[in-house]
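Good morning,

Both structures are done.
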Amino acid sequence: MDVIVSIWLLVGFILCCFAAIGKLGHVIRRRTEHPINPEPRQNYQTNLLDTSIRPDNLEFVTPGEATNHRITDNIQFMIEYVDRDGVITERVIEPLNIYRIAGKATIYIDAFCTVRNAMRSFRNDRILSARDMQNNQEIANLGRYLWERY
């Protein structure tokens, strides 16, 4: 009986290893292939949670504060964005809404992405650089810039 249980445990372990290897292969392919630009993308190596590298110094939002701002101007920004997998892309976005979740410091930007031709949400702490397309001005912190402007 113990031999059968041991065999089943070994088979389960082997299947888990195959699943992990398959997932790793999928992640590697996803990081190196891009639908617009098939060349391998640069990976963002910095820890996104390390505020000494990308300090936002934002105060936390309390539940009673207004946390949602509508952007009324037709403005476009060229941004360099790192997704949760570490893939960096350049995008042109048209922000429509900016918000913060109660109890968190992160600013989120809902925008129309011209690269994906769809609505997307962007975390401010993942925007590496931003440039106003109208006047070609570099914006150091797009989330704070939009939050204070609207």
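Second structure follows.
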Amino acid sequence: MSVLPQSDEKAVYVNAMFTAIAERYDLMNRLMTFGLDQGWRRWATKRIKQTDATWALDVGSGTGDFLPILQRAMPNVGVVGLDFTFAMMAAGQAKRDQDTTDHSFVNGDGMHLPFADESFDIVTTGFAMRNIVDIRQAFSEMARVTKPGGKLACLEVARPKNPLVRWGHQFYFNNIVPIIGSIVGGNNRAYTYLPQSASIFPQPPELAQIIAECGWRDVTWKQLGLGAVAVHIATK
């Protein structure tokens, strides 16, 4: 049975869902990805880092997993994480208080970024675009706030190319993840939403075309995690 909301209900639904799972969100991510998700973020960061960058923005930052990775790769850069759900940022703040890196959270909407034009040298987004009502508007907004020549890295779920791996991935995603989510995360519905939202999200070639139509150039992508994750890199 589908748990996907209608587009006019999506923002409220997503906010409530992430509020409910915020406290165990990081633990579930590590379990679902077998601890590989941080490595994917580091891989992306290596490909967009700039020695002369001054500001970096992570859109849909959640608990802020991308923030210390960006900060350590570019120690002189000011790093900002923006998220729609206050509870996710509150959970991330606890991590920030224990971290030696310096970054900040801002509550906001990825489709209406509360920043001036050309404010950032680097923009990232990790596993957040599936949760946004209009991804074209979100990518256009990210382009608007990025300086010319600035870099974008987008991490999202994908479908493995190998048929056998794809079957295993779909079985795990659709059958095992909701069970783990129910036991560990305490929310079967949220972790049923995850695979269902992934199933209708644009696959890498289509997503690359969307990004290119929203103010970005030189869009490339690479699938990691046996093809389960796609990392798109682009330039403003």
